[in-house]
Amino acid sequence: MTTITPTSERSSFVWLFFDTLAVTKRHILKITRVPESLFFSLIQPVMFVLLFAFVFGGAINVGPGGAQSYREYLIPGIFAQTVMFATAGITVAISYDAQLGIMDRFRSLPMSPGAVLGGHTLANLVQNILVLGVLSITGYAVGWRIHGSLADAVTAYVLMGLFAYAVTWIGAWVGLKMPNPEVASTAGLAWLFPLTFASNIFTPVSTMPGWLQPIALWNPVSCIALSARKLFGNPTPGLGNTFPETHTVLLTFIYAVVIVAVFAPLAVRAFKQNSSGGKA
Amino acid sequence: MTKAIVASGLTKHFGDVRALNGIDLEVEQGTVVGLLGPNGSGKTTIVRILSTLLKADSGSATVGGIDVASHPDDVRKVIGLTGQYAAVDNYLTGRENLELFGRLFHLSKSESKERAAELLEGFDLVEAADRGIKGYSGGMRRRLDLAASLIGNPSVLFLDEPTTGLDPRSRQGMWDVIEGLVAQGTTVLLTTQYLEEADQLASRIVVLDHGSVIAQGTSDELKNQVGGDRIELIVTHSEDLARAEETLKPLASGATVVEEAIRKVLAPVSGGSRTIVDAVRRLDEANIDIADIALRRPTLDDVFLSLTGHVAEDAEVSPKKPGRRGGRGGKK
After folding, report:
1. If phi over 0 gives left and psi between -120 and 50 gives alpha, with beta otherwise, what is residue B80?
2. Measured between CB atoms, does B294 come within 8 Å of chain A?
3. Is the C-alpha dihedral spanning A258, A99, A12, A87 positive or negative?
4. Residue B193 falls within a domain, yes or no?
């Protein structure tokens, strides 16, 4: 028999790092085992690009340049929509882990409690980066271009990655709070729809009724889309001089940090208390 | 002997439901204790509290001498847990699962690999080790699940209904594995609804009903509580019944019972299997035709029925009605 010496000489912070890596590896392996899931997570945003670029886009006016302008306007919106909807996947996956008792197994191990969700969200980020890459290529194919500097473009991608990572924690928290995967799959979409579509991702805020405009302006989803548009040098039709429009990048960054600061502790706490997997 | 598990006065509520009503429990090191009871009797709740997944409302518990409420992290280093579902990742291979859990148990990379290989070997999973678990049979999944709970070589192992849903052959396989672990000195707390399973594996049995301990002891002690062995004789000709009863009376340790309709004579006995040899000889000398004769030991089913007034499997739907014991017996 191997002699087992679980050494805990490393600090809990170091363990959080190593345990997170181990869990991330689990989820990355899963992506490679079921490439279909990655494939279908790509299909939907690509469909949206094609639909809006060629079907609905003609009806939406974002300024001079017509359809070409709209396609440039559209792609950053699709980026935002895609990272938002990627959270539904983690919601369901976490709920399945709870139902199958895998969460209980993790919780009975002397591992760092933050690592289960840390690893899951990190793996989700990796998947998001892949999807954003494919979307960028699709966007290029339909006429989307980066007009800004390289530094701005890099900033845009980093900001989208950060934002994607942040909202994943909301998805994780929702997944832990739901009693089973069936409910989780509906609940995971329920909050996404209003938040994602009451925004500027497909149509400029100026086309919305007055009462909706401030909501859409301050919506974090609008902010990430507008940030990307600004940094990529794409059209940014809007109201003009409102605070969320003049300080978009800063505001998006603050949103991302606040979302992690609020939902990561909430999710980890829910993970520690979670007992939806077992029978009472 | 040292106590591997000590719990005293554990209570737990879920909303309005009292899941545990003050549980006291002690498990000696290196022994198997079976928690036996129907669904909803509190078995799983006890296991979840002792394995640090759930906090008790009141009461205290130690596992391996460590307090579960104040030092859950230290408890997790000495325990293994196998729940009611095979808690392994379907998309990973058997080996990858074990190595993942090894890493999360904070074994080094090489230790994890070594330990995983060792467990795969020990659990007869070498051939399937590098296949995805999706293709595993139910029995293989359970074995892998059990292997995963042993990754850290725990001194205390919690098995929550380890064979629920398995076919008889896989069940026997699991029993063999569990017996092997106990032989190596692991302490096991096992929950089960199967009376046969508790009988087979556990050296001591704790019977639970509605969140309370209603009896405990060895399997034999519990059976003696219900009554000892008895001879069940069925005669071929009903006219022999009276003579058969007279013949068995000298061997009986208590009052004999005759069930005329099925030509059966019941005689409580205490001499064990010798008595049945004696009985057969006497019946033969008296020229009584025997259709069937058996020395019947009370089963844990009998124990459960006599303790709770309802049969184990039926408990959830049958409310406790003292005085109506056996009224709906036999329903499974």
Report:
1. beta
2. no
3. negative
4. yes
Nearest residue, CB atoms, A280 vs list B45, B86, B87: B45
Two tokens, residue B186: 């692991």
pLDDT reading at B204 higher than 90: yes
pLDDT at residue number B322? 35
Chain B residue with CA closest to A119: the answer is B104
Query: Nearest CA to CA, how far is B40 from chain A (Å)?
Result: 7
Cβ pairs bridging A and B (under 8 Å) = 114
Nearest alpha carbon to residue B82 among B166, B188, B185: B188
Give me the sheet containing B264-268, strands edge to edge.
B257-259, B264-268, B230-235, B290-296
Task: Find the radius of gyration of the CA atoms of chain A.
Answer: 20
pTM for this one?
Answer: 0.81
Closest CA to A65 of A222, A208, A228, A237: A237
Q: Rg for chain B (alpha carbons), in Å?
A: 24
Examine residue B65 and state whether it is found in any structural domain, yes or no. Answer: yes
Which of B194, B224, B254 is the last residue in one of the domains?
B224
Over 60: is that where the pLDDT of A8 sits?
no
Q: Verify whether the Cβ–Cβ distance B86 to A275 is below 8 Å.
A: no
A222 Cβ partners below 8 Å, 6+ apart?
A199, A200, A201, A205, A216, A244
Asked, for residue B303, whether it belongs to a domain, the answer is no
Contact B81 A104 (CB under 8 A): yes
pLDDT at B78 over 90: yes
| Å between B122 CA and nearest CA of chain A | 11
**CATH code (residue B274):** 3.30.70.100
Q: What is the model's pLDDT at position A275?
A: 57
- Which of A255, A273, A275 has the alpha carbon at shortest distance from A263? A255
> Among residues A45, A204, A207, which one has the least CA distance to residue A137?
A45
Domain containing residue B264: 228-296
The residues facing B191 across adjacent strands are B35, B160
Write out pLDDT tens, residues A55-73: 888 788 787 777 888 899 9
For chain A, list residues whose CB is within 8 angstroms of any CB belonging to chain B: 1-2, 4-8, 15, 18-19, 22-23, 25-26, 29-30, 33-34, 99-102, 104-111, 115, 275, 277-280
To the nearest whole Å, the CA of B327 is away from the closest chain A CA by: 29
Domain with residue B160: its CATH number is: 3.40.50.300
- Beta carbons of B81 and A15 less than 8 Å apart: no
> B219 and B232 share a domain?
no
**B83 close to A (CB below 8 A):** yes
ipTM: 0.85
Q: Could you give the number of structural domains in chain B?
A: 2
Per residue, the 3-state secondary structure of A198-228, as one string, reads: CCCCCCCHHHCCCCHHHHHHHCHHHHHHHHH
Same domain, B233 and B197: no
The whole-angstrom distance between B133's CA and the closest CA on chain A is 12
Q: Which helix (H) or strand (E) holds B260?
A: none
Q: Do A22 and B103 touch (CB under 8 A)?
A: yes
**Residues B60, B189 within the same domain:** yes
Smallest Cα distance from A123 to chain B, Å: 15
Q: Are B35 and B208 in contact (CB under 8 A)?
A: yes
- Test mutation, A23, A276, A279, chain B, max B CBs within 10 A: A279
B280–A contact, CB cutoff 8 A: no
